[in-house]
Amino acid sequence: MSGRGQLVGGLMFLFATAAAPLLPDWIVSLATVALANALVVLGLVVLWRAGLVSFGQAIYYCIGAYAVALTARWTGFRDAFALVVIGGVAAGLVAALIGFLLARYREIFFAMLSLALSMILYGVLVKTESLGSTDGFSVATPTFLGFAPHRDTLGLSLYWLTLGVDAVCAVLISAYFRSVAGALAAPIRDNEIRVEFLGVSVASVVHAKVVISGILGGLGGALAALTIGHVDPNMSYWTTSGGFVFVTILAGASSVAAAFVGSLAYEAVRSFAFDLMPQLWQMTLGSVLLLTILFLPNGLGSLVSRVKRREEVKS
Amino acid sequence: MLTSFAILTDGLVYAAYLFIVAIGLTLIFGVMKILNVAHGSFYAFGAYGAATAVGIYANADWPAALGFLFMLVLAMTIGLVMGIILERGLLRQVYGKDEVITVLVTYATFLILEDVIVLLWGPQSYAAYQPMVSAGNIEIGGLVLSNYDILLVAIAAALALLAYWSLKFTRYGWLLTTVIFDRETAAAFGVNVTLIYTVTFIIGAVLGALGGAVMAPKIAVTLGIGVEVIVLAFAVVAIGGMGSIEGALVGALIVGICRAAAVHLVPQLELFVIYGVMALVLVVRPYGLFVRAQPRKI
Amino acid sequence: MLQSRRRIRYTLVGSAVATAMLASAQAQQSAAPAAAPVKLGIVSFLTGPAASPFGIPGRNGAEVVIEAFNSGKAPPPFDKVGLGGGKIEAKFVDEAGSAANVVTEYRNLVQRDQVDAVIGYVSSGSCLAVTPVAEELKELTVFYDCGTPRIFEEKARTYVFRVSPHATMDNVAAARYLLAKKKNLTSYSGINQNYAWGQDSWRDFVGAMKALAPTVEVDKVLFPKLFAGEYGAEVSTLLTSKSQALHTSFYDGDLEAFVYQEQARGLDKRMTVIMTTGEAAIWRLRDKLPDGTIIGGRGANGPLAADTAINKWFQKIYTERYNIPPTYPAYQMAQSLLGLKLAYEKAAKAGVKPTADEVAAAFKGIEFEGPAGHVKMALGDGHQGITETAYGTYRFNKQSREPEIVEIVRYPAECVNPPVGVDADKWIEEGMKGAKCN
Amino acid sequence: MSAILAVRNLEKTFGSLVAARDITVSVPAEQTVGVIGANGAGKTTFINMITGHLTPSKGSIWFEDKEITGQPSREITRLGISRSFQVAQVFPSLTVFENMCIAAAIARRRGGIFGNIVTPVHSPAATAEAEATIELFQIGRYREIIASALPQGVRKLLDIGMAVVGWPRLLLLDEPTSGISIEEKFDLMKVAMSALRSRKITVLFVEHDMEIVTRFADRVLAFYDGTVIADGTPTQTLSNPQVQELISGVRLKTSVKKPGNA
Fold first, then answer.
1. Quick one: which of A92, B196, C296, D36 has the fewest CB in 10 Å?
2. CA of C32, closest CA in chain B: separation in Å?
3. Kind of pairing, strands C272-275 and C384-386?
4. pLDDT of residue D257
């Protein structure tokens, strides 16, 4: 991201922070969910840049969420900041583990194997009756560094927390995109042999990407769990992953900001569809996705990045 | 003894079901490199079409066999029409795009078609049991089997043979094989790839619809049956090897037998069988049982 | 107060999305007649596999009952127009999607559309997810179909109610009926979907059987995955079993698929099937449902309901509108609406809308006669209703070509529900102490 | 001065097929060695073994007195041996500049497992390095062109440039002029070789064109049937009767891509 881009991002962040109290609660909570999911999308973007698509990204989302819910349930520990970190770490560890396997796969096989893994987790959770099986269970309301917000301000607190985590991730990931490992995405998609002969282990770079996307997925899941106040195995079902891939395509891999814009756009469209045509919302979503692919092949983000490219060429 | 016999027969029946839903998917992937999520819609439309057909002939009280044929024909016609519309109207636009993009195009199509079903048939579910009930049952080795299930296995076997024969001994089959092996070269040698694509996709669609049709009498035709099938078919195809028809057959058999064994011996595992097998196979053979990775020449 | 604050916020909204969405919300508000209308959000599955068995009957039930309310044509004591004079404006929303969707849409109903109460939810998962939000938003919420007892056992609730009894009594009554009907029962098997509903149903049933007939043993325990559709292996397994009875909580698609497939192989000739939700399927399966099957309907609903005036009324308006008799989800919706109406009108003071707190206070512990019999908000500190339930045996009447349920046995609420203050699971484990069966 | 590359009794067999046997060569620093031989004579196998793409069945490879036998290619690259390819291996979706930048950044990245992550791809030093290399190989006017759209010759130079940008001490070129029209071959080699000389890089290049070999190599290895049958100055090797008979053929002065009899 250019210095200009960072500036714009910063302004967007400040606006989002300041505007929240003026917005009606339902928009705030809708935005919170969207911004939490945006992290998962960002993780998919990291993979997608290297030509990898995961149809099982929900596994990290689910692990992050359950890590939060179970910590709160078993230890009674409820600090939001710590819980979010726990969620991210838990998912990161799992990603690091299955990364050894996934790093060997490409294209559709990468997608299918991650799908299989996420569905196995789904099965395990469905079998765990002590955790309510498919009914799931509720997540304790979090505290913020010892202070417990009143129910009227809880929504805002969670929104700001999510926004904060998003901002940190956005900065780190755009830094990552500017690093060698980040920039290696396209080369790995193009020509792995050359990458190896330049002296880089493709496997370890891909592995790192899997872990990063896993951590982001976990953070997203953790925030979602706190916002929704409920976790269930469906968070790991393949349709959940499908939804995230959907948003990724909508957003496009062109920039970090795209993930957030795309996720917000998706939540808005979905909510509209539910509101206006309760029985035909799938058709609406499908059409939107189709039109995006056909007429905006690089996603919403491409609108932004086109402008940026032109400026870079000029400068 | 009885149990092992039961496992075998149940496995075969389930395998037949899996193979019938997977063959169209693997064919399309092998030729066009498209992982067709809309295959679930073909299945669903086939089932709904079959239910409609059965409704018609149940009222017109025709002989069961005729009704069964009518059911298949109607369903396959629906598949044919959908195949043409989708391939000509939509997929044309995205040929040559990234594999994943095409997957998502079919995913979007699937979402849309799910609601088209609601528009055409409404949210209520349909029954088409007549063919299976009128087929009756037979007792073999102390186990009562439904004749319809046996018919199902026969249909699957026939499909497998037909596929084998047409790939080995027909002109289209040869052309297909060349395209599967190397599209560019095939095109360079004057094979009309676009035509092959159209034909293949239509065949795949018809097979998907056929799968729905033959299953319709066993199930309640209701919203969401497509979703379940997609992942099943994906798993089978991934196990056997994307685009390999013998792979789909073997994959279906493995999953079928494993599932039957699980249900009979350790019912708790039933939920994991398919994905467990899939993960295991992919770990050992990253490209599935019947596909080898070609090392790149430098 | 909360309301007014929200309005101020509304005027300050900047984002295009927001304004667009609000436009619709406010349009609805400005269209308010003199006797302020009462807005109800009604949530059930309108798409997906659960739509046809539960969601759509629920919605249909809501539509006819609300119509009757608004025209003041419901039988007394429900004959006041709308809710306390205010006509009901219903907004129907799809329950489909993840818990995140369900909760988001719930918030949209409450905070964007400003509905006065929410009625709905089929999936226990949805109910568990919505409950804390309802409490947080102080929104009056009535669950109509979801069955898990956890909602009021995990915590005391203030704004959440459930008129329909929870699922415990379904399987307790099933056990009682089976044992009464099959004196020489020695073993039974079960096939249930591999998710919370199936697992809980089976656990309750086995518990009840243990308590009532410790010597009867469990044989095959099958848990096919939800919406599996193909049950060949399961049927064979059962064909190799010596059980005389089979318990299932299957519904709609899975139930029908299982019935077709087991019939093709004559399983029902070997063992009696107990369907805890069978009532919802009889009008579709008709002569395909084997005679002698034991049928339950999540309470004394449909053909299991007592032949009272109000039941006749509901049967009539529903059948006239949809020319198919109402199934239990429709009954549950009707019961929920009737309960809400009573509570609302009990709380309403001349002309002014009662607040959520007033209605909630009035709702606690009320009793009334509904189509499905006498309701008593007895459990969960007056938030969870109990009713009598009934089981019967299915028969397809060859003369009238109509399904019938015969040998109906009624179980008083206290016979099949835990006493106040006892958790359902514990009650069953400890042998269902204090059950009062006439 | 000791040899920068020393190869001892190298052998590679694929099942019963012997692709390379008993190869013993030592190359002093800054020498330019041409490698000739018919197709299948073992030239590429030889290079693939040195660069770690193939593991030798027997024998050892030493680089700057360190044994590198059987190490993965990326390790060997890090040690200072890089290569170009018979078919240019570049990143088709990136521009020439981006291709060069990534190569430069990789070469200058910090160590440690997080080296790739903590090194920015556009550090001034790396960018300067990339610019310099682009100029060195005279492909500046293609700077912003996507690699997939480059003419064959430029892509070859880019391929070599990406191998050079990391300042390797030993460079192996596998048929740098293959797929290049006879007219362009010489210019391409001129550009490439002068660039390599200017960086004092030891070079091994596989070539079929005897004129190019005589023109650019200080020394020529002749491969036949998996082993070295002649080793010396171009004139010595090419005048070797065995070589003339088996490889270059009598048409020494004409430049045919493949010898008539092999």
1. B196
2. 33
3. unpaired
4. 44
